[in-house]
Amino acid sequence: MVDQLAVLGWPIGHSLSPAIHRAAYSTLGLPWRYSAVRCGADSLAAFVASRGPEWRGFSVTMPLKEEAHRIARDLDPVARASGVVNTLRRRDDGRGWDGFNTDVAGLATAIGAAGLDPADTIVLGTGATAVSAVLAAQRLGAGRIRVAGRNSAAAAALAARGDEATAMSAHGLADEALRDGSSTLIISTLPGPAGRALDVPAALTAVPLFDVAYDPWPSPLAERWRAAGGVAHPGTAMLIEQAIVQVRIFSSGDPDTPLADEGAVRAAMRGATASADMGG
């Protein structure tokens, strides 16, 4: 019996997860199959409950991350702290699914590998991925995080997640307080099309942008950043790093146990996303 895995979401046709997971499994010699399945939040619980024992686990993308958190039998510490699950692994006893959040580790690793400075971070957006962005910046030692979004209540709730080492505040996307030129990093978790209409002052485009979007790439926001002479980093870097942690989980159940040859796995995954990074 061949183990089955899939990425679940709606929409899902754009996802690069099948390409990068298949590249990883091939490199590791794992005879697993990985597919993409369109699934809405209202059908997630029934879908995963109906899967047979051959189903090892799932990557979970929007808009399912909060619902995946709700249905998981047990949660890893990051999923528990964030209220977000992007990975479901069948429990060893076969009774349900354990939930994990690999977005935080993936984003933190990608930011660090790019040599970006998270000391004074602005997070654009207030959804599930924005929660992980805040936790990633905190993990990297950010001294200040400003959360900016259209939903003021959601921004305030996210800003309330501050710890003793991080000054947190909530803002509107057009707030003058974001234009003081002091930020060192901007993480956008906004849907790609939202970048077209966003009011972006010149002072912000001088700050490096990490945009979790990758389809299309460059995203509308990244295009505006680059047109102004700024630097924009694609979300494929985060996608790869969080997927490496997912493969660890699917393999051993432990997000901290490295794979046999992660360097080769990372290289294979990058090769699988090369055309997306170039806008292909």
Could you please describe the fold and organization of this structure?
The chain is 38% helix and 19% strand. It contains 11 helices and 12 strands. The protein is globular. It folds into 2 domains: 4-102 and 237-277, Rossmann fold (3-Layer(aba) Sandwich); 104-236, Rossmann fold, CATH 3.40.50.720. The longest helix has 17 residues, at 236-252. Strands 2-1-3-5-6-4 form a 6-stranded mixed sheet, with helices on both faces. Strands 9-8-7-10-11-12 form a 6-stranded parallel sheet. The protein has 280 residues and is α/β, with parallel strands linked by helices.
In total, the number of domains comes to 2
Q: Kindly state the percentage of residues in helix.
A: 25-40%
The number of helical elements comes to 11
**CATH superfamily grouping of the largest domain:** Leucine Dehydrogenase, chain A, domain 1
What is the top-level CATH class of the largest domain?
Answer: Alpha Beta
The CA-CA distance between the termini, in Å, is 36 Å
Strand order of the largest sheet: 2-1-3-5-6-4
CATH fold-level topology of the largest domain: Rossmann fold
Beta strand count: 12
Largest sheet: 6 strands, mixed
> What's the SSE pattern?
EHEHEHEHEEHEHEHEEHEHEHH
Pathway: Metabolic intermediate biosynthesis; chorismate biosynthesis; chorismate from D-erythrose 4-phosphate and phosphoenolpyruvate: step 4/7
Protein name: Shikimate dehydrogenase
GO molecular function, one term: shikimate 3-dehydrogenase (NADP+) activity
GO biological process, one term: chorismate biosynthetic process
